[in-house]
Please model this.
Amino acid sequence: MTKNHGSSIKNDEKYEALLNEGMSKTKAARISNTPNSGKKGGKAKEYEERSKQQLYEKAKEVGIEGRSKMSKPELISALRNS
Model:
């Protein structure tokens, strides 16, 4: 049975699975709170094909700090490493 981690975690099952894989609590929470984080489809554009504003919005969605001062390459790197 999945433990309830409170209102700050939207998908408790995914959160626990990510913790069990060795992710930090912060990264597991960020991923488990992202809508459609577990869905696959391969239809999203590559980061390089997106505008800086689109990358900024994605960074905001996943909770990357300092995003407002990042360049497009920095946003891409932060998104790939989050």
